[in-house]
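input
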Amino acid sequence: MKSFLASLTLFSALLLASSAVLAQPLIIDHTCCDLSLVPTQYIIASRDCCRVTYGHTSHGSQIVSGMNVLVGLDTLYDWYNDNSHYRYGSGSPAPDDELSLWDYIPAGDLGAPDRVTWSVRTRVMLSNSDGAYVIYPHFRNVVMWSWCGQAATSAENITIYLTLMDSLEREFPNVTFVYMTGHLDGSGEGGTLNLRNEQIRAFCHANNKVLFDFADIESYDPDGDYFLNLGANDNCDYSGGNWAQQWCAEHPGDPLCLTCSCAHSQSLNCNRKARAFWWMMARLSGWNPDPEKVENLIVTTDGDNITLTWSAFPGAVSYTVYYAADLDGPYSLDVSGTFNGASWTAPLSADKRFYYVTAEVE
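output
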C-alpha cells in the first residue's frame, strides 16, 4: 500500500523586496542554525537570485570562516568572490552552482574608519558613481555590514547607523540591506552593548527589517542554553568557563566543532553563524519555515494516477508540488503532473512518496 502526505503552504518571497517594505521583520538568530530544516531547493534558489556584498573586518569574518568549513562538508554551500570580474574585467562571474559573495567589500566596517564612511562606500558601489566597475551593472542585491567592537556606544551613534541604513533602503529599493547587532563584550544584559543591540532589534522589529542578530547567536549554545546573563563575551567565555569548549567536549566529532580560523572566538561560534547565514539566504529566496496551511486537502488515486485537490488559496497565481521519500525530506520539485486550477494529477509512483504544495500569491 502506498502512503501519501500532502499539505498546502504559502510561498512568500522576500528577495528583491526592500527591507523597508517587508510585511514583517526577518530576524536571524540562534534559532536559525539548523540547516537540516532548510529545504535544499531554497539553498539552490538563493544561489540563483542573491548577489551578496559583505563589508567587515575581523569579527565579521567569523561568518565567512564558518562558511568555508561548510563548503568542505557539502558543495551545496559553495560560494565565489567574483568582484574582480566586475571591477577589472578579469576572471569570470560566479558559476551557476555557487553563491556570488563579495567578501570584505566595500572596505571597512560599521565603525571604521568612522560611523558614516560605510554608507558612502555602499552608495558609490551600488551606483558605480566613480566608474570603478568596468562591468556594470554588477547585480548586487543583498548588502551586509558588520560591527567590530563599536556597537557599545551611545544611543545617538546607533541612531546614526539606523538612519543611514534606512536611507540606503529607500534610495535602492531593489536591494535587501541586512542589519546587524554587535558582538558580545562580556558586559552582560545590563551593559551598554546589550542596550544598543536592543535598540537595533527594536528598530528592526518595528520597521520590518532584515536583522542578522550576531550577538544573539553567540549568547546561546546549540542546546539553547543561555549565557549572556553570565557575562558571555565574543570568545564564548562566561563566568563558568567557555561554553563553546564545554559543548564540543560533550559532543566530540560533531560537525559544528570542526576547526576553522575563527577570529576572536571559537570555531563553534563561526560554524553556527555560517549556518545562520545560509538560513537567511533561504529565507530571502522564498522559504517560509512556518507556512500557512489550507483546509480541505484531498488525495485520491485511481490505480494509475494520483490527484491532489485543495481549496483555492486567495490570490494564488500558481501552485508548485514537491515530493520526498521520507516525511522529513529532503523535498524536490515534482514536474511529473499537470495542474487544473486547485488540483494536480500525476502518474502514480511505485515508491512511497510524501507531498506538499505551495501557492505563489501576488
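quick obs: Confidence is low (pLDDT under 50) at residues 1-21.
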